[in-house]
Design brief:
The complex is a heterodimer. Chain A is mostly helical. Chain A is 72% helix and 3% strand. Chain A contains 16 helices and 4 strands. In chain A, the strands form 2 sheets. Chain A has a two-stranded antiparallel sheet. Chain A has a two-stranded antiparallel sheet with strand order 2-3. In chain A, β2 (168-170) and β3 (173-175) form a beta hairpin. By secondary structure, chain B is mostly helical. Chain B has a domain at 39-262. Chain B is 71% helix and 4% strand. Chain B has 14 helices and 2 strands. Chain B has helices at 2-32, 39-56, 65-68, 73-79, 87-124, 132-153, 183-205, 207-217, 219-224, 229-255, 264-275, 280-301, 303-306, 309-320, and strands at 169-174, 177-182. Chain B has a two-stranded antiparallel sheet with strand order 1-2. In chain B, a hairpin with a 2-residue loop joins β1 (169-174) and β2 (177-182). In chain B, α1 packs across α8 (207-217), α1 (2-32) runs antiparallel to α10 and α7 (183-205) packs antiparallel against α10. Chain B is globular, with a radius of gyration of 21 Å. Chain B starts with a helix and ends in a 14-residue tail after the last helix. The model of chain B has no long low-confidence stretch (mean pLDDT 84). The chains are: A mainly alpha, B mainly alpha.
């Protein structure tokens, strides 16, 4: 039960974690992640790394779609831009910048580049919205991947066959195992989640929410649509760029086809399943979207005894399950898993009284 | 000049097919206000159904032999003594295939109409009156469901299907240069144009077409005037899926059959937005323009670059005219 949630000052009311339950949850999660990094087996670490990378990107999409209300089906392109910028800069700057400091140079540049291109892609959002924007971003995604695949840029991007990516090097500590990468990814993902939670409590975040609720009304209230829509695009692209950077450091090789429409759809699907416009939404969504194929793989192996003939059905089944999950949540629980947990928490909060 | 005309004509031919695909998206949008992102996958289903009824079933042992290859006596007599690759030979080859082509097209039409109807009943009807975002995302989810289902049902990765029309080469003079075409492409274009024109006329003059337009104008008024709106919805979906079946069959004969057929839907979606979602004329012009631009790009820059032409074009058009070339502007109230 949340009681004693009394605020005597504005500062206390405006804190990011404004009650003791939230603080306990955040510190508890930190502890749990530390234990996980120390004791989990390799497979669990791998899955958790995938989740972490996707989570950073989904938090970015949440800022744009969940808080500002602009639909994008092209954020896979920003992840690609982040990953490729990091790789290309790392290759280009080897020898110029000592390896120990490379990470701290290339990652901020990659984030800045993706944010800049985010502004560029966001320009149509000033004139079109809803469906038209979805198709415009979809088109941008196709164009970016197409340019990466071009032979003309192949010396830098590797073209269709992909390119080897560097290992992260933090001041001489080379993160060449998955476990070490998990520490980096979980710290980055955790920080970016807290940063997003902080963002929506500020003036900028409130402007985003006003635009989502009714953009013309927001404009009448004096919120500059130009400025805040583009800020939203830049921020969400920057998050995706960061996710792309982690992607490049985590995998040993990146291919353009990894960032096609499928990734963009996965990002939006994770957001819808988790719950749009909520801080914890992306977390729940990413867990479901990453775990679902694994669960299907395990079940398929259990029922068929793992014979090769039925193995070809696994990937279509995963695809169908992904679509069904998306459709199910849209039809039955449009506010996502976050809404379910909200209900449970509210019932627990009021126990033993009314449960509604 | 000769090259230019040749490529322009090629472009018009693929533009006609784009228009045929686009008509499905526009019809569904006009009636139900849903933009179908999965239309490309409906087309892919049409192509696979055509493949099933025109190639797989005639190839079965229990199928009658005339279905797989029709060989009446007069046909065999005519074929004897013909030189290889003669136009007459191409026509006779086609005559042999006629039974399975007809069987394939009818089968694809019926099967795709059923698929369209199932989608409308199970996914779209519960969403009546929901937000645009939810409707878009349901069709996005449908993409995954349909592409997964297709790869479970049909194992073939890529295969060829019989041409709808005799594929004899055609040569003629235009503006003082020789144009070289395939007969099948020409017939495909005619089919696409006739169907497109037929649907535009139907929406304009027939009773069910007027019902579609009335529903597009104002759903609740249409309801109160005695139009069954749910019936209009399912009719629009059946219309989209049957035109999609024909478009799928045509695409399958042009490009061979493969799961990547679904991606056509996205470039056509770009074309539809370019033309303006609710304008048949705008969409037709946009489809032709993109077809020609693609052919020109193919000629000047190579085949790769042609595939992003629709996307670049839609971005350019949306920046200048946010509701497409001929689309009607939405009026918003606060």
């Amino acid at each position: 039960m949340i009681n004693g949630n009394l605020k005597a000052t504005y500062a206390a009311d405006e804190r990011v974690l404004n009650n003791s339950y939230k603080q306990a949850f955040v510190y508890g999660t930190m502890l749990a992640l530390a234990f996980f990094a120390a004791f989990a087996n390799e497979y669990m670490i791998l899955i958790a790394c995938k989740m972490g990378i996707l989570l950073i990107a989904v938090v970015g999409v949440n800022i744009l779609t969940g808080y500002t209300g602009l639909v994008s089906l092209g954020h896979g392109a920003f992840v690609a831009l982040g990953a490729y910028t990091v790789t290309m800069l790392d290759n280009g700057l080897t020898g110029i910048i000592p390896n120990q400091f490379m990470f701290f140079v290339v990652v901020p540049i990659a984030i800045a580049v993706t944010a800049l291109i985010g502004v560029l892609v966001g320009l149509p959002s000033l004139r079109v919205k809803g469906l038209y924007l979805a198709v415009a971003t979809l088109a941008a995604n196709f164009i970016v991947i197409f340019l990466i695949e071009q032979d003309a840029f192949a010396p830098w991007t590797g073209g269709v066959v992909g390119i080897d990516t560097p290992d992260a090097n933090l001041l001489g500590w080379v993160l060449d195992t998955n476990r070490e990468m998990f520490i980096l990814i979980s710290v980055v993902a955790f920080t970016s989640l807290l940063a997003a939670q902080n963002l929506i409590r500020t003036r900028v975040g409130r402007a985003f929410i006003a635009i989502r609720d009714r953009d013309y009304s927001a404009e009448i209230l004096g919120i500059s649509l130009l400025r805040y829509k583009l800020t939203s695009f830049a921020l969400s692209a920057a998050y995706c760029g960061l996710a792309g950077a982690m992607f490049a450091f985590f995998y040993s090789r990146i291919l353009p086809e990894q960032f096609e429409l499928d990734l963009s759809l996965e990002l939006v699907a994770a957001l819808i399943v988790g719950g749009m416009g909520r801080t914890m939404g992306p977390v729940f969504g990413v867990m479901v979207i990453v775990m679902m194929p694994e669960v299907i793989k395990v079940f398929a192996a259990y029922f068929t005894g793992g014979d090769a003939a039925s193995a070809r059905y696994i990937s279509p089944l995963q695809e169908i399950a992904f679509g069904l999950l998306l459709v199910f949540f849209l039809l039955k629980e449009p506010l996502g898993i976050n809404h379910i947990t909200d209900r449970i928490l509210r019932a627990a909060n009021r126990w033993p009284f009314a449960r509604g | 000049m000769g090259q230019l005309t040749q490529f322009a004509i090629n472009g018009l031919m693929s533009g006609a097919i784009y228009a045929l695909i686009a008509v499905g998206i526009v019809s569904v949008y006009k009636a139900t206000k849903v933009v179908n992102f999965a239309h490309g996958y409906l087309i892919m289903f049409g192509a696979y159904f055509y493949y099933t009824f025109a190639v797989i079933i005639p190839g079965q042992e229990w199928a009658p032999s005339w279905l797989a290859s029709w060989e009446p006596v007069w046909l065999v007599e005519m074929k004897e003594g013909l030189p290889m690759f003669s136009p007459m030979g191409a026509v006779l080859d086609w005559v042999q295939n006629v039974p399975r082509i007809i069987f394939g097209i009818i089968g694809a039409l019926i099967a795709n109409a059923i698929v369209g109807r199932i989608i409308e009943r199970t996914l779209m009807r519960p969403l009546m009156g929901q937000s645009i975002f939810a409707m878009i995302m349901v069709t996005v989810g449908l993409i995954s469901i349909m592409s997964g289902a297709a790869s479970i049902i049909w194992t073939a990765d890529a295969d060829f299907v019989p041409h709808i029309a005799p594929n004899a080469p055609v040569r003629f003079e235009l503006f003082g240069s020789t144009i070289f075409l395939f007969g099948a492409d020409l017939v495909n274009m005619l089919i696409a144009l006739i169907i497109f024109g037929g649907i535009v006329l139907m929406v304009r003059y027939t009773k069910s077409g007027v019902a579609i337009r009335a529903t597009a104008e104002d759903q609740s008024t249409a309801y109160s005037m005695g139009i069954s709106v749910p019936k209009v919805f399912s009719r629009a979906w059946v219309l989209a899926s049957t035109t999609g079946a024909i478009a799928g069959a045509i695409l399958a004969t042009r490009n061979g059959i493969s799961p990547s057929l679904g991606l056509f839907g996205f470039s056509v979606l770009a074309i539809v937005l370019m033309g303006g979602l609710d304008s048949y004329i705008g969409v037709f012009l946009a489809a032709m323009a993109v077809g020609v631009m693609e052919a020109m790009t193919q000629w000047q820059l190579g085949g790769d670059w042609a595939e992003i032409v629709p996307y670049v074009a839609v971005l350019a058009v949306l920046l200048i005219r946010p509701h497409g070339l001929f689309g009607s502007k939405e009026v918003e109230r606060i």
